[in-house]
Amino acid sequence: xxxxxxxxxxxxxxxxxxFKMLIGGQLVDSESGATQQVLDPSTGxxxxxxxxxxxxxxxxATRAAQKAQPAWADLGVAGRARCFxxxxxxISRNRERLAMLDAIDCGNPVTAMRTxxxxxxxYLDGWPALAKSLTGDVYPASPGNLHxxxxxxxxxxxxxxxxxxxxxxxxxxxxxxxxxxxTLVMKPSDETSLSTLALAELFNxxxxxxxxxxxxxxAATGDAIVTHPDIKRLAFTxxxxxxxxxxxxxxxxxxxxxxxxxxxxxxxxxVFPDVDLDLAVEGxxxxxxxxxxxxxxxxxxxxxxxxxxxxxxxVHRMAARLAQYRVGIAYDENTDxxxxxxxxxxNRVNGYVESGVAEGxxxxxxxxxxxxxxxxxxxxxxxxxxxxxxxxxxxxxxxxGPVVSVFKWSDYDTMMSEANGxxxxxxxxxxTNDLSIAHKTADALDAGYVWINDSTRHYFGTPFGGxxxxxxxxxxxxxELLTYLEQKVVHTRLGEAKTSLDRLLx
Length: 506
Ligand code: NAD
What we know:
CATH topology of the largest domain: Aldehyde Dehydrogenase, Chain A, domain 1
CATH architecture of the largest domain: 3-Layer(aba) Sandwich
Radius of gyration: 25 Å
Number of domains: 2
Helix content: 40-55%
Number of helices: 19
Mean pLDDT: 96
Strand order of the largest sheet: 14-15-16-13-12-18-19
Bound molecules: nicotinamide-adenine-dinucleotide
Low-confidence stretches: 1-7
Structural class: alpha/beta
Oligomer: single chain
Largest sheet: 7 strands, mixed
């Protein structure tokens, strides 16, 4: 298959669709006419141009969201849940188109993107159910007084997302802010905006005008959201560097913003010598999220700390298993591992592979460009490094790609201090059949989400997020829902019942 044969039908599929931003119920271009180009990571070919939103577009989106918010809040949870149900139905009817757009735009295998869309139903059903269960509190008060709490939405929420699960993030991440009665200005990643723009039409059909506004664009567009004085609640998914910048810029905007950050990870998988080796190797590879997004996932296994007794056999079996993964064009049904998102990201990941070799790690397999793929695509054979130490860049920095580092350990305390020794703490996993060692180790791990004999899956309703620089706040649970609501205490002086009654009744 040549590059041109691949590109032609795909390019027709993309150019036959209209990609517009959504502002105040209208599908629009940027008011400045500015655009950004979309490239296919599987071929490097240009696919189309999409709007690049400006400060004026963010302003228009925020005004529309402000205007729509009171009526949206007045609908109540049940009314808002009906819009969620309509939206869910529209998504299932557009499943194939949305999955294909993510494969073409992001490089994730189309088979995995269908699964990503299917996983959204847990969120579309789950958020309304959780919101219906929210209650206020009544506090003890002295006689003649009553204290209770009430929740109110913030108003307009700004939501900025990362590139790696485009359609899933665009569907699921806005839901807790919407079900609590807020309206939204959302910006997807400039690398992978196509499926979110395709969703604009569906949001528009399911929700009243102005409730969901979508502005595409780059860092400057994101900054206009972060610093907008009428956006008091910001939610961000992306890298630690951008997260820190957003904290600073939000503060510089001059008003206090409520902020949640879902950031990077360098996640440790700890393997004890008593494991079933095949299960642990499968878990290690499954946890890399190779066949979902080429390892470009915040919660992926990235450091595998294997006990010396089983280390060599573990590495040997892992290399053999990785060799079975088929790297190829993302929209080919037989592909397991697609290309990374962009040429710039390929350069970054390749730089890590080179640094691993230069710093003395053993490249057991992969890290090279596979044969038989389009020459312009951003492909990397999944790389397995052994003999990695915490001093090496591949041992301590987030790579966000198909590269995994194996460390050998024999002393428990040294291993644990290495596992906890970074300023990141998103996920971790512990693999052993010894229950007390498993729980002791899980307890000692400085991470927000720890699996025992499992990896990567997280479940709606349980709080997801990290410690240290990996996160501020938790998502996917009641904890998150409450962060989209202001709490108010109402104090009532009941007065002297007899006096009040006498006055009222004459
Ligand atoms: P990124 O930080 O480069 O970009 C994220 C988003 O921020 C994009 O929409 C981008 O356009 C926008 N942005 C960039 N600069 C901005 C600025 N100055 N002001 C406002 N917005 C700005 O991240 P990425 O490359 O898209 O995603 C990869 C990172 O995201 C990894 O570190 C990964 O671990 C993390 N991530 C975390 C989670 C999680 O749930 N913890 C999930 C997915 C990805």
